[in-house]
Amino acid sequence: MGSYRIVLADDHTLIRQGLRRLIEGVSGLEVVGEAGDGLELLALLNAVVPHLVILDISMPHLRGIEAIHELKAKYPDVKVLVLTMH
């Protein structure tokens, strides 16, 4: 069985880097892509379909909530974990 594929979407590079370090320290988990905003996330999903997207609810160009609606319409089986400081 392959690894569990995860995409990180957050407009703060330090957050993405920290999450990547934590995730890659766990056997069987793999970060397969990163996006800095909602539009970048949707473009990335055309190239790689993960099992899980961890995303910030407040991102530029396309907020997390709107990105979730588009993501789920096209990839209903992809799980979403929302991060927020609010």
Overview of this protein structure:
- By secondary structure, the chain is of the alpha/beta class.
- It has a domain at 10-27 and 35-49 and 77-86.
- Helix content is 36%, strand content 27%.
- It is built from 3 helices and 4 strands, in the order βαβαβαβ.
- Strands 2-1-3-4 form a 4-stranded parallel beta sheet.
- Helix 2 (38-45) runs parallel beside helix 3 (64-74).
- The longest helix has 12 residues, at 13-24.
- The radius of gyration is 12 Å and the shape is globular.
- It starts with a strand and ends with a strand.
- The mean pLDDT is 94.
Name some characteristics of this structure.
single chain, 86 residues, alpha/beta, four-stranded parallel beta sheet, 3 helices, 36% helix
